[in-house]
Amino acid sequence: MKNLFKLEVLKTNKTLTAKEQNGFRSKFKPFLNMDGLSSLCLEDDHLYIEYGTLSFNVDSFKDVLTNSGFPLNHENRKLKLADSSVV
User: Fold this and answer.
1) So what's the pLDDT on residue 55?
2) Residues contacting residue 54 through CB under 8 Å, at least 6 positions apart
3) What is the pLDDT of residue 3?
4) What pLDDT was estimated at residue 80?
5) What region, left, alpha or beta, does residue 15 occupy, with left being phi > 0 and alpha being psi -120 to 50 degrees?
6) Intervals of the chain under pLDDT 50
7) Of 20, 28, 60, 73, whose CB is crowded by the most CB atoms within 10 A?
8) pTM score, two decimals?
9) What is the pLDDT of residue 62?
10) What is the 3-state secondary structure (H, E, C) of the chain?
């Protein structure tokens, strides 16, 4: 059976405390109802996102994360976008 999900690993711009992680986990619960989003896992300074390849826009979701106050490392994001446009 073919795996229809992808995994994206996002780095935060700081290591989150246990209290901050718990707060973001609570904020993220409603996100799991988004079409195409399979799972989220937050650990220290990484957020793991498992999503459907056809029905989920990762770049739009990064904007949702930033708007919710999540400390996304934007430098890595810009590098990824620049790298993908070179190919």
Assistant:
1) 78
2) 4, 36
3) 67
4) 44
5) beta
6) 77-87
7) 28
8) 0.77
9) 92
10) CCCCEEEEEEEECCCCCHHHHHHHHHHHHHHHHCCCEEEEEEECCEEEEEEECCCCCHHHHHHHHHHCCCCECHHHHHHHHHHHHHC
